[in-house]
Amino acid sequence: MSAHCQLTGRKPGFGNAVSHSHRRTPRRFDPNIQTKRYWLPGENRHVRLTLSAKGIKAVDRMGVEKAVRLVRARGHKV
């Protein structure tokens, strides 16, 4: 599973882990990605979306129909 949100486009950030002695090591900041299953009443079926925590809250606000429309507009197959 790739670490990016289908709705918001959130993806990993990169930076450095800095130790006590101030040595720097490359690291990766992953978003909180969850796989969530929603009922899509317009198509009478379930859809599985890979969303960040912020994306899940956005779906709760806007509704699953609009969210799936936006995900498809981004070019993801649902």
From TrEMBL:
Gene3D superfamilies: Ribosomal protein L28/L24 (2.30.170.40). Residues 1-28 are annotated as: Disordered. One of its GO terms (cellular component) is ribosome. Signal peptide: none annotated. The keyword Ribosomal protein applies. One of its GO terms (molecular function) is structural constituent of ribosome. InterPro entries: Ribosomal_bL28, Ribosomal_bL28/bL31-like_sf, Ribosomal_bL28_bact-type, Ribosomal_bL28_sf. It comes from the Bacteria. Keywords: Ribonucleoprotein, Ribosomal protein. Pfam families: Ribosomal_L28 (PF00830). GO terms for biological process: translation. Belongs to the bacterial ribosomal protein bL28 family. HAMAP family: Ribosomal_bL28 (MF_00373). This is Large ribosomal subunit protein bL28.
